[in-house]
Design goal:
- The chain has 391 residues and is mostly helical.
- It is 48% helix and 5% strand.
- It has a five-stranded mixed sheet with strand order 2-1-3-5-4, sandwiched between helices.
- β4 and β5 form a beta hairpin.
- α6 packs parallel to α8 and α12 packs antiparallel against α13.
Length: 391
Amino acid sequence: FRANDPSRQYLAEDWGRNILGSLKPGAIIVPSADHSTFPLLYLQAAEGFRPDVLVANKYGTIDDAVFRELLLGKDPPRVPPPRGKSSAEKERYLVQCSGRPVYFTTKTRLEGLPGWELEPWGLVFEAVAKSTKPDEKAHEALWASFRFREGSLRHAPGDFSYDLILADYHYARARWAPLFARLGEACSELELAARHGRGIKEVLNNLGGTLAEAGKPELALRYLRQALEVDPEYDLALKNLASAHFALKRYREGLVWFERALELEPRGIPLWLGKARGLKELGLEASAYEAYLHAWRLSPRSPELREEIEAFARKLFGETSSLAKLGPLPEPRTPGAEAELGYDPGADLPGPAAPSGREPEAWEAQPGLSPLSSIRDGTGGRSPYDPPATP
């Protein structure tokens, strides 16, 4: 009985209490993993702690019942809630229209909200306007307020339920340190997170993504490769690995990883856009133009994407070319592009993807490509540890 007695294990309770205690009054939180969701639900239902907080994602997705709770006792909203719509649309509504502070336990791309981003706030991420500058003293005070029972944070690796929380704890400490140029502290915390996350692909991907965002892509490669050793088809690690190689100006290697990611997610707009930018910077203009058109076919209503493609087309074909302005949705391949350039773009595409779990052959770096932001945004569904849903 002693070996299986968890009655004195308080880490999950302390984890949930510290998360809820760090949120602003009336907050909405979107948890994305069981070890972050269930402690919050227990504390609210059993102990009545922080009843003002709305837990939006109780069952692996944002249920429409959230909007009933959100609008209870209020006049009908000017913008109706997106009942029955995708999780991304519901998240966008909560951030943009709820009038309440919104938090996430993992970092996601806020689709359709270009003026917003998720910034670290203690153990979670807060949706803030992009111009928001982090307050170092406020962050320090928040971390000083967290309380854990004696010995909980020193638990040895090997217990899966402990490891999930402790990996997240050290990962959280690692991601706020770079906000204030504390990279040494961040790397130490990442090593601790890696000890508890060994063999957990989502944790390893998070660590690599954090290092890439902190300007250390060369250190990120190690963790991202380890994530792919666990699962050679893990899409988030493939995306991050592509971006990390681009940041290191190893563009052809990055393109191979983008190709592998596209095999798994052929409708991934950021993947086609990343591929287009990489091909453009390598001087493979026709192939770049074709990849741009693939991205546009998937997102024809994006004014930013249209502007980027048309600017590239004007430079490539000339201001008076019929290809310099996008009209109706084009076919994926535009013969006029190859005709004007005089060569077959397929002949210059990167070679076949490297075998699973192996690093592609290294190519010589080419100058001139601006690093793409790492792709650390999550996918649908729930695993025991849901990844950030990472450009």
